[in-house]
Amino acid sequence: MEVDDTPDMLDISVPRYLPMSQETLKTFSAMVSAREDNLGRIDSILRSIKQDIDKYVEFIIGENMFENIGYTRDFMIVNLQSLERILISKYELENWKAIAFEIRNNLNQQIPEDPATLSNLQQYHDANDETLNEFIRRRVDEMKNSPEKDKNIREYVNKNDLYQLLKNMAFVIEKPTDPLPEEQDDDDVAMAGGVISLKDPMSLHTFKEPVKSKKCDHVFEKSVIEEYLRNEIKTCPVAGCEGRLAKFDLRSDDLMLLRVKVFEAKQQADDFEIETI
Ligand SMILES: [Zn+2]
Is Ligase there in the keyword field (predicted)? Predict the structure, then answer.
């Protein structure tokens, strides 16, 4: 037996973590898991909103329900507003969670590496001079009062795919041939005289089943581009575009389909007006 391993008689060991810290960690864990439950709930609400919207869009497109475009626009706007509120809650919860992890790291760092003994008890004591509640309050206040807060929330909401889709649909219902605000300077968007083309660039027929290339954002009629690509990888047929495409780079473009449907419905309504004058 080595002498060095013999415990110092004066060194009265206490548990590795003081009861105070253990309690703190327990409280912390309970708080985090409650927030995680809420985040899970928010995600399931988001999924069900997405399903409702998909069903609704499928219905109005399938049934050509465009006689009352005002109603469709209101549906989009109401959903957009609820979605925004939900995303803001999600943003706040995620921030809280980030703070919670910061707290956990902080606690782990503050607790000295060595087991607590009478000789380093003061160090333990000093490490806990800011209580958990004080720390959380301070960090949450910092977050709430951050001058960047509104900008960060805006960015967070805007980068959500579902929010983008709904916002774009609400826009397209009003202005079916206008480029989206963020598309106005995009060279890949097929436009003529500031108006979005609703025609397939290869067949020049109005889109029936538009698909978008995820490589270059060009939109094509599904059957036409599939016939062109077959099972090969080819250069995008749009003049000047060097994108290399294969069938699996194509995604159905619901927004373009909505543009076509709304445009046609508006034209029919205009024709009807002219006839009745
Ligand atoms: Zn292209």
Answer: yes
